[in-house]
Amino acid sequence: MSSIENPTRKRILETTWKLLEKGGASAVRMSDIAKAAKISRQALYLHFPNRAELLVATTRYLDEVHDIQSQLVASRAAETGEERLREWVIVWGNYIPRIYGIAKALMAMQDSDAEAAAAWEGRMQAVREGCAAAVEALARDGALSPELSEKEATDLLWSLLSVRVWEHLCIDCGWEQDRFIAHMQRTLARVLIA
Amino acid sequence: MSSIENPTRKRILETTWKLLEKGGASAVRMSDIAKAAKISRQALYLHFPNRAELLVATTRYLDEVHDIQSQLVASRAAETGEERLREWVIVWGNYIPRIYGIAKALMAMQDSDAEAAAAWEGRMQAVREGCAAAVEALARDGALSPELSEKEATDLLWSLLSVRVWEHLCIDCGWEQDRFIAHMQRTLARVLIA
DNA sequence: TCGCTCACTTTACACCGTGTAAATTTGACA
DNA sequence: TGTCAAATTTACACGGTGTAAAGTGAGCGA
């Protein structure tokens, strides 16, 4: 990507990320980012056409930095469906807090900006595919609860592993990350497995 | 409340409700409400100091109309904790779609308007109390899973019954309301009960 | 050294939606 | 007829996004 080749662009993305990580989502304005990146607000628009695209670019940059791809590959190596589900909860569940800042900002824009909505939608569809793969693995093993269709199981898994549920438990209820992972594994095992 | 005594106030609340029910949350502006209520935008400010208070007043009006109180009383009559949990899922789970419009608008304001945040917070705390009561009833019966503290069980129940999860399953995944209720009952039984 | 380009700055402005302010109209009722 | 309240009209301030255009300055090749 163009993240490495262009130093200011990279600095902008880095700054946006850090600002979103601490400050509360919509509190991060274009002018805040500009100031923090030691750039004029207008210069921001030389690199990104609007706020939505800047946020989306930041998520892509994060994926790049965290090398999410290779982490996903690891979770696919699991032998049993049950093991795969546990791995998937770990991989995605632990990724959530790292992207939470941008996620929050992007989710806040969802009903005002169609482009931002589509971008977030796309990323969540990718997560859904991870969920679907885990459910399929369970089904292959004959471990999927007979009360659930694969679609229903995927929907449930996807919902329980959503950023919103993580937010509710870890931010609003004050759960530690470890506890979140452990309880999600337990909960999903009980809900999905026969 | 002053909802009955004042006809225009009532008309405003009614209009706000209907507009939020169809239109997408933040798409409902003060001017939209004014137009639909056949009033000037300024007249709105004669009745409500700002958008946040108008939305909050609308939720209170909704509770009044739906008489949520008496519904809650009914769910408390259940004999066993298990039965009480099932009833609670029905009562609150079926109330969500009725308030979803306002909920969405209010949730969208959460990180821009402190007053709106506090108002929504307060309402959700009331829901949490319903969850806590159900968990307590389970604990009294000795039916609560030994792997969960009462606090954890309440947090989980509260999270799974959140508006966001309902939204995810019923709006994003296209579930029917009945299916939502049924699966939530099943899921929560498996997660919370020993 | 001239002149070009590129990245960025400065200044200024349009648009939207919220909220404030004040003068004016309308209608009921005494 | 006069008064009062409710609502209207008009106008404006503010904050945040995005656009537009002229200006600055460093680097670089001819």
Commentary on this structure:
Two copies of one chain form a homodimer. With 194 residues, the first copy, chain A, is mostly helical. Chain A folds into two domains: 45 residues, Orthogonal Bundle (Arc Repressor Mutant, subunit A); 125 residues, Orthogonal Bundle (Tetracycline Repressor, domain 2), CATH 1.10.357. Chain A is built from eleven helices and no strands. The longest helix of chain A is centred in the middle third of the chain and has 29 residues. The first copy, chain A, starts with a helix and ends with a helix. In chain A, 35% of the residues are buried. The model of chain A has no long low-confidence stretch (mean pLDDT 92). The interface between A and B is medium-sized, with 27 and 27 residues.
Secondary structure elements and their pairing?
The structure is a homodimer of 194-residue chains.
Chain A: H1 2-5, H2 7-22, H3 30-36, H4 41-47, H5 51-66, H6 68-75, H7 81-109, H8 114-141, H9 150-160, H10 163-172, H11 177-192
The structure holds a DNA duplex (30 and 30 nucleotides).
